[in-house]
Amino acid sequence: MLTYNMDVTPESVWKRTTPSEAELAQPYYCTEAGVFYAQQHFSTARTDKESYILFYTLRGAGLIEQGESHVVLSTGQALLLNCRTPQSYCTAPGQSCWHHYWVHLDGAGVAAMEPLLLPGKKLTPVQLTGVKMQEYFEMLLGQMEHSTVDSMVTTGLALHEMLALCARSILAQAEATSARQVILQAAETLSKNYQKELYLADLLAEAHMSKSYFLRLFRRYMGTTPYNYLVNFRITQAKELLVLTDHSVSEIAQEVGFGDASNFSTRFAKATGQSPLQYRKRALKPQEGTR
């Protein structure tokens, strides 16, 4: 069952086609596609349809709901949805429009991509850059006016590339997330073991990365090198000890992992602009007007 409110502007496009037996045997084929310049009250609700639908937002945003999952599809985002279970989509609340491309597609190739594009069957928006997706949709709409073997092949390739764009973006994001977690773990190792003598080789072995790649990622996510991160963390701990204890500079140097008081004082002065004793004196000095 399908219900909808077609609040779209006249330049919107909705094309339909009936796939041939040859097309139905392809890994990717489509039955409908269009570009909707949807306005504020656009909405669609469907109980089921034997296909998938791929959206791509050009402007504004759409709200897409299926089961307990609901997402806002913003400008530049694409999303694959399996229409075999109830779903609804509309212009997102607070938005004046949702200009978007869409295509109903199916085939063994689409089904094979579903676990990646719908992980855990959860609606997953994909942020895309550039104009490739728009170009593929325009190619697709143009091919739907023909019924030739050439158009069948071109359509299948376009659908494949559209899904591949989404898949590559998801994989890149997953890789970036994984790499970030590795670096955060390395930073945590430095923080927890700052009192010990630490070696870059140990971090590399734990991260299973080359030295150059690890250092590049560490700077990207932490804003500095592992060595400077460790030094800054040790200095932060030293500041607390200088203020909260009466330990000597030599004792504090040992406690925070510098070992050598001279090295500690040099590093501390470089980072703070004052010696450890000057820092202690100024931190403990009563503020003017206080008693």
Could you characterize what this model shows?
The protein has 291 residues and is α+β, with helices and mostly antiparallel strands. It contains 10 helices and 10 strands. Strand 5 (52-66) and strand 6 (69-74) form a beta hairpin. Helix 2 packs parallel to helix 4 (149-192), helix 3 packs antiparallel against helix 4 (149-192) and helix 8 (249-255) crosses helix 9. This is AraC family transcriptional regulator. Pfam families: AraC_binding (PF02311), HTH_18 (PF12833).
Key features?
ten-stranded antiparallel β-sheet, Jelly Rolls, Arc Repressor Mutant, subunit A, 2 domains, alpha+beta, 10 helices, elongated, 291 residues, single chain
Record the SSE blueprint.
Blueprint: E1 2-5, E2 13-16, H1 21-24, E3 29-39, E4 43-46, E5 52-66, E6 69-74, E7 77-82, E8 87-91, E9 97-106, H2 108-117, E10 126-127, H3 132-143, H4 149-192, H5 200-207, H6 211-222, H7 226-244, H8 249-255, H9 261-272, H10 276-284
Helix pairs in contact: 2-4, 3-4, 4-6, 4-7, 7-10, 8-9
